[in-house]
Amino acid sequence: MADPRTRIVDAAAELLTREGRDAVTTRAVAAAAKVQAPTIYRLFGDKRGLLDAVAERGYAAFLAEKQVREPGPDPVEDLRTGWDLHAAFGLANPDLYALMYADPRPGAAPAASAQAERMLAEHVGRVAAAGRLRVSERRAIDLLRACGRGAVLTMLATPPEERDPQLLVDAREAVIAAITTDAPAVADGGTAAAATALCAALDGTGALSEAERRLMAEWLERLADEP
User: Residue 146 CB: number of other CB atoms within 10 A?
Assistant: First the structure.
């Protein structure tokens, strides 16, 4: 039999999926996990701590699905694939997705959330290294994250029979168009794309000191985000 902590998180996740967030009470979870209610408070502090553990598990499940994919030859297509996987996960797990992204606690992000952010940064970094970002990496990450989550939450707030799947496609393409170019920076001569590509390559050079690299990165990010 699994340890009490695992049983409790499993029970809470199952209740969340089957009956929604309101069903995840300490009494119901304790009964489903076959533990006493004080055990939940001892292991998680309070109900919010338990929900954080469920969100952590959700992030881990999402990452396990994404990590089986190898990067493709086109980094921009990889961004599209990542967006589609994110949207599919949200639509398949509405209550879990809402817990993960609609009710975050500032400064208390699950460890798996940080890993997801690193994976997104790696995807964007490959686009930047290819000279195909028209904004800074930080701006691209923020736009992808904000628009992706917003689009999925909008779909989840819409009755299933009224949802338009094209919304997710249109939102995806709008963001891709806003942050990427059609060709490498060298080919199209775009200052922002060139600055972003050079910024992405800074870590691989030994010609600059750490202080010089930071200063150069700051200048290049300004150029990348210039309107």
Answer: 11
Report residue 67: phi and psi, to 5°: -75, -15
How many other β-carbons are positioned within 10 Å of the β-carbon of residue 97? 22
Number of domains in the chain: 1
User: Dihedral, CA atoms, 30, 34, 40, 43, nearest 10 degrees?
Assistant: -160
* Residue 193, domain member (yes or no): yes
Q: Is 133 helix (H, G, I), strand (E, B) or coil?
A: strand
DSSP one-letter string for 84-99: HHHHHHHHHSHHHHHH
Domain of 185?
A: 72-224
Q: Does residue 20 sit within a domain?
A: no
Q: Is residue 1 part of a domain?
A: no
Given a cut of 80, whether residue 126 has pLDDT beyond it is yes
Cβ distance 171 to 154 under 8 Å?
Answer: no
pTM, to two decimals: 0.74
Residue 192 has pLDDT above 60, yes or no: yes
Q: How far apart are CA 18 and CA 3, in angstroms?
A: 22
Residue listed under structure tokens 């030859």:
73
Give me the pLDDT at residue 70, please: 76
- Is residue 2 a part of any domain in this protein? no
